[in-house]
Amino acid sequence: MSFVISIISKDSFIIAGDTQLNNENGKIPETGIKVFPIDTSFVVGMTGDYKGNIFSIEELFRFSAKEKIFSKRVERLSQLLGQASTDSNALAAGLEDGKALFATLGYQTGWKYQIQSVSKVGDSTVRFLLPPNVDERIIYPCFNDISDLKNCVINCVRVVSRHSSSVNDKVFGVQATTSGLYLFTDNTNYDQITVRIDAISPRKQ
């Protein structure tokens, strides 16, 4: 499994994940991104069956080239993952008309979802996809100091990597604001990640 975490505010979001890949025997040498920037206004983080996820993401790229409405994109993602019949989970976030939107989808709920947003300036919400047998209570202390939200999500990945053998501490993430999309890494470089999708070229921050 994997770990993906996001913090969403009224007009921006950060979403990041680890890069460890696993098979039925455990960790493998290759690494891969778990957070996929579909374009500058739509990002999907995924856990579970990696090969199935890659297929769904590739189909979502093609769909999103013409369809720009957030709700339609999430609907298509739900359909793709349902058709794949995998044990995957997804966290989608995007910007539409200057407002951040998000939705969490999971195989355990039959891919049902609700599109949500943060209504007040200054407020934010945290969403995450945890690997099995990891207590979500270890996440909350990561946000005791919210002066640097990007560092908060990076620290969360580090914390979870110490509690799960299926998660590493090499982070890839995306920060999205109304002024652009920014790629970031921690403890690795983007070009060192074995499996990555370069559909867009985010500016490095």
Describe the structure.
There is one protein chain. This protein has 205 residues and is an alpha+beta fold. It has a single domain, classed as 4-Layer Sandwich (Glutamine Phosphoribosylpyrophosphate, subunit 1, domain 1). Helices cover 21% and strands 36% of the residues. It has 3 helices and 13 strands. The strands form 3 sheets. A 6-stranded mixed β-sheet has the order 10-1-2-11-12-13, covered by helices on one side. Strands 5-6-7-8-9 form a 5-stranded antiparallel β-sheet, with helices on one face. α1 runs antiparallel to α2. The longest helix is centred in the first third of the chain and has 15 residues. It is globular, with a radius of gyration of 15 Å. The C terminus is likely disordered.
Helix content: 10-25%
**What is the overall shape?**
globular
N-to-C order of helices and strands: EEEEEEHHEEEEHEEE
The number of helices is 3
Number of domains: 1
- Report strand %: 35-45%
Identify the strand order in the major beta sheet: 10-1-2-11-12-13
Per the CATH scheme, the topology name is Glutamine Phosphoribosylpyrophosphate, subunit 1, domain 1
Task: Please supply descriptive tags for the structure shown above.
single chain, 205 residues, alpha+beta, Glutamine Phosphoribosylpyrophosphate, subunit 1, domain 1, 6-stranded mixed beta sheet, 5-stranded antiparallel beta sheet, 3 helices, 13 strands
Summary, kept brief:
It contains three helices and 13 strands, in the order ββββββααββββαβββ.
Please describe the topology of this protein:
Layout lengths: L3 E6 L3 E6 L1 E4 L2 E6 L3 E5 L2 E6 L2 H15 L5 H15 L4 E8 L2 E8 L9 E2 L6 E6 L19 H13 L9 E7 L2 E7 L16 E2 L1
Parallel strand pairs: 12-13
Antiparallel strand pairs: 1-2, 1-10, 2-11, 3-4, 5-6, 6-7, 7-8, 8-9, 11-12
